[in-house]
Write a structure and sequence with these properties.
GO terms for molecular function: aldehyde dehydrogenase (NAD+) activity. By secondary structure, the chain is an alpha/beta fold. The chain is 45% helix and 13% strand. Helix 3 runs parallel beside helix 4.
Length: 328
């Protein structure tokens, strides 16, 4: 590792993924500069640099850094997706809000990093730039972008414009696209599923054979750091997964095993489940459960020699252990 790579800046270092990346950097003896909003808490050992907005970043924020891992973003929220469907005007406003941070803010951060002499800029994107359901086979990095919503559109635009910026200026760009990320500290739907299983609630997932790619937050941190350091990552896009795609039913059962609470799965046919979802206004949520979203992560293994340090079972076990500890 070069001396310049012994410090890496992490935007959004206080978040779920940012904390995992920070821990992994420090464990490898790499100093971490956390670029976060004022008052945000980072992992112990991170050198915090408070910022107000991404577009106000100046080169001094990246002093001494050989690379940047850009995690700061406006993230996808279900309420945003619902708002997008209500009217064209609200959808436009929502897209503008995503673009302001995920596109304009990203480019501003990249430009400030370039002016500071940073060599590598790694963008955390999302598999949503390709879609919410695979085309009958795992998505590859060469598939065309078909983002389904404002968040996905903003991430897709950020990828394209950032790669163009790198080609024009010489800043080395690497892009990481994770599917569903889980691990200790997870929130949203994954946490809701664990809560339901732990409480013994029946779940209508016993007949869902759709397969979903996952990546543990520790595997994602490891792969992202590899993209920041490996010369072969420059100018490329990489998908990152645990390497095994469980069905929704299998995932629920595995979680139940690790939680010590066998999942109560009711075998409701996927077609019936989708019909009930339409009546209840939950179509989007159920579509995610009943449709496959598999991701091919062969490129990062073959091109960079990266191997996931954690298996799916190990990742689920760690997540379940965290969940049990946090319960009253």
């Amino acid at each position: 590792m070069s001396d310049a790579a012994r410090r890496i800046a992490v935007t959004g270092a206080n978040g779920f993924v940012g904390r995992a990346v920070s821990r992994a950097l420090l464990a490898r003896g790499i100093a971490a500069t956390g670029l976060v909003r004022r008052g945000a808490q980072c992992e112990p050992g991170v050198d915090v640099h408070a910022i107000d907005e991404l577009d106000a970043l100046t080169p001094d924020a990246f002093e001494g850094c050989g690379a940047v891992i850009h995690l700061a973003a406006r993230v996808h929220m279900m309420s945003d997706a619902a708002a997008q469907k209500k009217s064209a005007s609200r959808a436009d406003v929502l897209l503008d809000a995503y673009r302001a941070i995920n596109v304009d803010g990203t480019l501003a951060a990249a430009d400030a990093a370039r002016r500071a002499g940073v060599a590598r800029f790694v963008l955390m994107s999302s598999i949503k730039v390709l879609g919410e359901r695979d085309p009958g086979r795992p998505f590859t990095e060469d598939d065309a972008r078909h983002p389904p919503d404002a968040y996905g559109v903003s991430k897709a635009e950020a990828e394209v414009r950032l790669l163009e910026f790198g080609s024009r200026t010489g800043l080395q760009i690497a892009i990481v696209r994770p599917p569903l990320v889980y691990g200790p500290g997870v929130r949203a739907n994954f946490l809701a599923m664990m809560n339901a299983i732990a409480r013994g609630m029946p779940l209508p997932l016993g007949a869902i054979d759709a397969r979903r790619s996952l990546v543990s937050v520790d595997n994602l941190a490891s792969a992202t750091i590899e993209c920041a350091l490996n010369p072969a990552a420059a100018g490329r896009i990489f998908h990152v997964t645990d390497g095994y795609d469980p069905s929704v039913t299998e995932l629920a059962r595995k979680l139940g095993e690790h939680l010590g609470k066998p999942a109560r799965l009711v075998p409701v046919p996927a077609g019936l489940l989708r019909g009930l979802a339409r009546v209840a206004g939950k179509t989007a949520q159920v579509d995610r459960l009943t449709g496959s979203l598999r991701v091919d992560s062969q490129r990062i293994r073959e091109s960079l020699g990266w191997q996931a340090p954690q298996s799916l079972d190990d990742g689920l076990a760690a997540t379940a252990a965290w969940f049990r500890i946090r319960q009253p």
